[in-house]
Specification:
It is a single chain. With 504 residues, the chain is an all-beta fold. The protein has 2 domains: 4-299, Glycosyl hydrolase domain, family 43 (Tachylectin-2, Chain A), CATH 2.115.10.20; 313-503, Jelly Rolls (Sandwich). 1% of the residues lie in helices and 49% in strands. Strands 24, 26, 27, 29, 34, 35, 36 and 38 form an 8-stranded antiparallel beta sheet that branches. Strands 28-37-30-31-32-33 form a 6-stranded antiparallel beta sheet, with no helix packed on it. Strands 2-3-5-6 form a 4-stranded antiparallel beta sheet, with no helix packed on it. A hairpin with a 2-residue loop joins strand 30 (383-391) and strand 31 (394-402).
């Protein structure tokens, strides 16, 4: 095949901790979702570089209790596997319930109720062979991190063998994200170290049985960007392997893009990237471009007929609630009326600064750093508007609000921890029925404005770095949301219409 290029990330925006499997000629991929509902985004692809979201794995409150889950809570690190006609997804709800897995025979249908596995740690994975199911996760003791594994009853989640420490990694901190593969004569155990930050790295070892002993690859880490100063793509780790239909091996991994090459802040979250994997004659494998991942990758493994497509325009008709659009924690759907023409929200006393309950909020991931978002918000006796949301204590908002003296104003505010600052406001004419609110995204800032007639009133220009994960100390990414709060009477509704999001 001829050489071609593709761009990383292959799934942009806050879609971290990717796990992948192939069934026939179709690839399936899942990601972490933390405090957002529904949970565990599910994608499919036929070429590895173009991915379509087909829904979520966890779509019911019984599968995904998210009470009190914040941006470091909820769902961590799922793994997807396929065995004898059944898909399995295993993950951890670190806020409510711990490790569990669900299953389905129809990848486009509903998944089962959870089966729980009583084990400590995070980042669980499943490995199937010869009718047996193995469960592994990470752990830590006074000697550092380790990978723990046992055989389980796949019907009940009960351990059939005593949990056993099978590997202690290569010495890096935060040994996590274990996955086991049987390729040729060897069992390969791949994991990550360094923390999901700038020192993140993928390491692996191999052995002759599922329980080892495992010999570490001499050139570990097999993939890392930790030494690429000035490279926009950083934090590469938490990986999974897949063999394509032509017998080539690939690695999906998370990485994040800095807002500028030398500015160590990222806002769009940890994203899903792809690099080729090559096995040598000795059975050891290498990954990426000399062990690194790049924003632009060259390969001869994809057919020349494959073209990477990038969606630039989003609106209410080509997106859907429960697919691209998600809620914070478990929503009360009586507060929402959602259609292709309008999202209608009825606020409660739980504002978007609430962490211990679900606010009236619906959001979509910010996928690139340059964009223009506009939406018409109807005037109602409550606060309602748009938010650039990182956490309950870190968000920028532009909204319509009733005034004590009568009438309505459009206000821009910045909420950063204990600091809340109003950057601008305008009073709307008395006969105004709706306000068109806009957010313009740039790598280093967000601009907030309101349209009155042909005039655009800029109410605030706020720095993006303060909504970065480096400042927030969290694991998610910026969400572009709609919200309503503090109604003056029961049943008040604000209609959000003409919502458009265009990337540069």
């Amino acid at each position: 095949m001829d050489q071609m290029y593709y761009n990383n990330p292959v799934i942009s925006g806050f879609y971290p901790d990717p796990s992948i499997c192939r069934v026939g000629d179709v690839y399936y991929l899942v990601c972490s979702s933390f405090q957002f509902f529904p949970g565990v985004p599910l994608f499919e692809s036929r070429d590895l570089i173009n991915w379509t979201q087909i829904g979520h794995v966890l779509t019911r409150r019984s599968q995904l209790p998210l009470a009190n889950a914040d941006s470091v809570g909820g769902i961590y690190a799922p793994t997807i596997r396929f065995d004898r006609g059944t898909f399995y997804m295993v993950t951890t709800n670190v806020t409510n319930g711990g490790h569990f897995y669900v299953k389905t025979n129809d990848i486009h249908g509903e998944w089962s109720e959870p089966v729980y596995v009583q084990q400590k740690g995070i980042d669980p994975s499943l490995f199937f062979e010869d009718g047996r199911a193995y469960f592994m996760c990470n752990g830590e003791d006074e000697n550092g991190g380790f990978i723990l594994q046992c055989e389980i009853d796949i019907e009940t989640g009960a351990c059939l063998t005593a949990p056993q420490v099978i590997w202690r990694g290569t010495g890096g901190r935060f040994l996590e994200s274990p996955h086991l593969y049987h390729i040729g004569q060897y069992y390969y155990l791949m994991a990550s170290e360094g923390g999901t930050e700038y020192g993140h790295m993928v390491v692996y070892a191999r052995g002759l049985s599922p329980f080892g002993p495992f010999e570490a690859y001499a050139q570990n880490p097999v993939l890392t960007n930790r030494n690429l100063g000035g490279c926009a793509l950083q934090g590469c780790g938490h990986a999974d392997l897949v063999e394509d239909v032509r017998g080539n091996w690939w690695m999906v991994h998370l990485g994040f893009r800095q807002i500028a090459d030398w500015m160590m802040f990222h806002t769009t979250g940890r994203e899903t990237c792809l690099v080729p994997v090559t096995f040598g004659a000795d059975g050891w494998f290498t990954a990426g471009e000399d062990g690194t991942s790049r924003l632009r990758m060259q390969t001869d493994r994809l057919p020349e007929t494959v073209t990477q497509r990038v969606q630039k325009h989003y609106d209410l008709r080509n997106t859907a609630p429960g697919r691209e659009w998600v809620f914070l924690q478990n929503p009360d759907m009586q507060q929402y009326e959602l259609s292709e023409d309008a999202f209608c929200l009825s606020g409660t006393e739980n504002g978007i600064g609430t962490e211990d309950a679900s606010p009236v909020f619906i959001g979509i991931r910010q996928k690139e750093m340059q964009f223009r978002l506009c939406c018409k918000v109807s005037i109602a006796a409550q606060t309602a508007g748009l938010t650039v949301y990182m956490t309950a204590s870190q968000h920028y908002d532009i909204y319509v609000q009733p005034q004590a003296a009568g009438g309505f104003a459009v206000i821009c505010r910045a909420v950063l921890g204990s600091v809340e600052h109003e950057t601008g406001r305008i009073t709307l004419p008395p006969d105004t029925a709706a306000a068109t609110l806009c957010i313009t995204g740039e790598p280093l800032h967000y601009q907030f404005s309101c349209m009155t007639g042909e005039t655009e009133h800029v109410l605030g220009i706020l720095e993006s770095k303060y909504l970065s994960s480096e400042v927030a100390g969290n694991f998610t990414g910026v969400m572009l949301g709609l919200f309503a709060e503090h109604p003056q009477a029961k049943g008040v509704r604000s209609a959000f219409t003409d919502w458009t999001l265009d990337y540069a």
